Amino acid sequence: MSYGSNFRTFSAVYSYNEWGFLQWGTCEAGNLFPARLTVSAGETYYIQAGIWYPDSQGILTLEIGFQPAPPNDDFANAQPVGALPFSYSSSNQAATSESGEPRPSCAYNEALNTVWFAFTPNESRSVSARLSNVYFSTYLAVYTGDAVTNLAEERCADYAQYNPLAFNAEAGKTYYFQLGSQYYGEGGEYTFELDYTPPPIASFWYWSSDASIYDMVTFYSSSYDPISGGFSDFWWAFGDGTTATGNPATHQYAADGDYSVWHKVQTPDMRTAETSQVVQVRTHDVGIGKFSVPQSAKAGQTRSVSVGISNTRYPEAVEVVLYKSVPGGYGFVGQLLQTVLVRPANRTTEFSFNYTFTAEDAAMGKVTFMAIAYLQGYRDALPGDNEVNASPTKVAR
Questions:
Q1: Could you give the CA distance from residue 243 to residue 261 in angstroms, rounded to a whole number?
Q2: Class of domain 287-396
């Protein structure tokens, strides 16, 4: 029922019983949204039409028509799904609900404007159903059973035009899809699509990217599901004989090396994917093992300051910067850059500085030297021993 009026109207439909008038459906802006309802044979309905705004007037046109229910309105007449991919376009505007029809778990109200589809796969495989060309609030549920009154829900998707419904279908088993409207008075054109679910894509990343034996490495799954269904399970094998589950996962390696890390994901409908990549563990670590400064000096005297760098792992390029105490902090003295070879733990590579003590040093009576070692090209795994303050040097005039 609709209007062709040239002013803003409303329409409402009523029936009459012993308790008075009973309104059917919702009150609509008649010349914008037609009023729709399911009528019963022999029942008398009263149509009320009026102005939406005061002082509105014009020509009122009333049109009444019947829209037949879709052929797959009832469970017993469910539309068969043929070979996949399958697509079916129709409207559920005039669809009804039958006695005993289930309300799925994701429906906001009882079953409204429902239509049905039946699918019997010839192979066990994940399939996904979705809606397209839809402009109303929907739900899509899938059931097993042999009658509308004894159906068991498998899964349900709210707003199925945005959330595809995926599940693992068994060969030879018949599945029934129920498409319905979430709200009273809604419905319209739709396209129902069913196809085999594409596989997910497994991927991951980890931090720190320059892992050492002192780091707790965190592994993050960045896997992708083409239907946005998410993942239910995550598995990891870290390449050194240890494993983990969940996302994210953490692991600390005991030794440097190249480790092939394996990762597998699984979706709620049992689709899986896996991947692997090599994680390099390299522990770069140098430290200040010795710091030799004179115990005393005089203003104008040049003395040697030596910084010994320890390194037991890989040849490294190291820069050592020497500072001295000044009022309010430290001042720059000099810097040296050189290669530090691998040596036993009790031996160091020397960085030698010459410093001439000043009258200002003598005025303060002492100087405290500070050395900082900077590893070049790599992150120092244990930087805590890269900065050392020496004992104060007494300075006389």
A1: 10
A2: mainly beta
Q: What is the pLDDT of residues 263-280, one digit of tens each?
A: 999 999 899 999 999 999
State both tokens at 322.
Answer: 């020497």
Question: 3-class DSSP state for residue 363?
Answer: helix
SS3 227: coil
Q: What is the pTM of this model?
A: 0.75
Class of 75-196 in CATH? mainly beta
Contact in structure between 88 and 82 (CB atoms under 8 Å)? no
- Summarised one tens digit per residue, pLDDT across range 72-130 is 999 999 999 999 999 999 999 899 999 999 999 999 988 889 999 999 999 999 999 99
**Rounded-to-integer distance, Cα 349 and Cα 342, Å:** 9
Domain boundaries, the chain: 2-63, 75-196, 204-281, 287-396
The residue to which tokens 């809606």 are assigned: 131
Q: Tell me if 86 sits within 8 A of 195, measured CB to CB.
A: yes
3-17, 300-314, 324-338, 383-397: segment of lowest average pLDDT: 3-17
287-396: same fold as 75-196? no
Which CATH architecture fits 204-281? Sandwich (2.60)
